[in-house]
Amino acid sequence: MSSPAGFKLTKVGVNALSLFNNYGLTAGATKLFNNQIGEIEVKEGVLRVQCGTVLGDPTKTITVRSNATFQLDNLWAANIVNKVVVLDDGACMFATRSAAYDNFSGPISLNGTNIFDSLTGAYLILSGEISGTGSLVKGIGYHPGAPEGASTGTGILILSGSNSFTGDFKLQTGTTILTNSASVTKAANIVMSSGSILTVLRPDATLALASGQAFKGVGTLNGKLNSPANTTVSPGTSTTAALINLKGDTTLRGTTIMDLTKTNATLAADKLAVTGTLDLGGALTVSLASNTNLAAGNKFTLFTATTAFVNAFSATNLPVLPAGLAWSNSIVLTSWNIEVIATEPAERPVLTNTVTGNQLALAWSTAYSSYVLQGQTNPTTVGLLTNSAAWGLVPGVSGNQVTLPIDPANGSVFFRLLHQ
After folding, report:
1. What phi and psi, each to the nearest 5 degrees, are found at residue 209?
2. What's the CA gap between 281 and 61, in Å, rounded?
3. pTM of this prediction exceeds 0.90
4. Distance between CA atoms of 58 and 216, rounded to whole angstroms?
5. How open is the CA angle 131-132-133, to the nearest 5 degrees?
6. Splitting the chain (420 residues) into consecutive groups of 10 residues, what average pLDDT does each group show?
């Protein structure tokens, strides 16, 4: 089918229009549309391009309006569709054939929130630059008119170009792959949702965040992560505890934000689980959402690393604790933890005594855990000895208190509290 130069195709109606060419792309073979076709506008429903179909002049534009879909279905390997695409807010690109590699090489402009959808087993491959102020969402689009029916969104999106879009890069379903020179460094945030996977097959196998960029959410990164100064890493998007699996060495030099929760006696925390080495640095900021106060012994695991932890955060900003409590951090095998511990008042403890009959009760506040009770017994003619060897631990102390019999035969008996 051929058409005059400048001819515009406008798709209307909520159903699908399929452009199908099964005659091949070899020399002399019939093509559906020639290079004279001009603009294409998808106002409603689905424009479906299949097999060997080509779409005319690659310098002309396909404009996909809100809630409309540009679908690629079972494109032949030799048919890499090339045209300028402009996506209005809510517009979608959709790959639908299992085990088919649907290639699109033209530039794409995002305007608003744009969905890139693929059914299970389908590959949507984009090699041109993706630009614009909108957000790229790997998820489930709105295309009720598609012959395939409702989407699962669990197929694969492959990006191989250097991209410059400045909205969010949101991975809600399935797998997204960055390959060749693919980059998303201009995106404001990289946001993962539960079950989503981001695989970095670039030569450096590294997702390197750009200045001002945040990496957050819940999901799995297959590749290394590098978070330099002026970047943010934060599991989850709310105060609910969340997990990001990082399948590669990870370097933190920006701000790492983690959330803790305590609901009654139940503790939970965000976690970065690293397969490899975790290189710590930059600032760690931890927030708390709870309906009851933290207590001594409350412990949270924020990081795990299968190989090693190296270096340390240069600054830590932890939740304020009630008086008498403090934070402590530790590394136990493959886990990096923070724990609430009891602290002591700045002033020295007071040793109290109570005599009941022939019993002497000694006690001091349980706020002090680093003091021990010592005593010495000497003849009345000797009195108090000042050398440390003269003092010994008083047996039977429990809970910072002890009761001792009073025996006149002991002569002079002395007690003291010693800070360990």
Report:
1. -75, 145
2. 47
3. no
4. 37
5. 140
6. 66 85 52 66 90 79 94 77 93 85 91 95 94 97 76 92 97 97 96 97 97 97 98 88 96 97 95 98 96 93 98 96 90 95 87 95 90 93 91 95 93 92
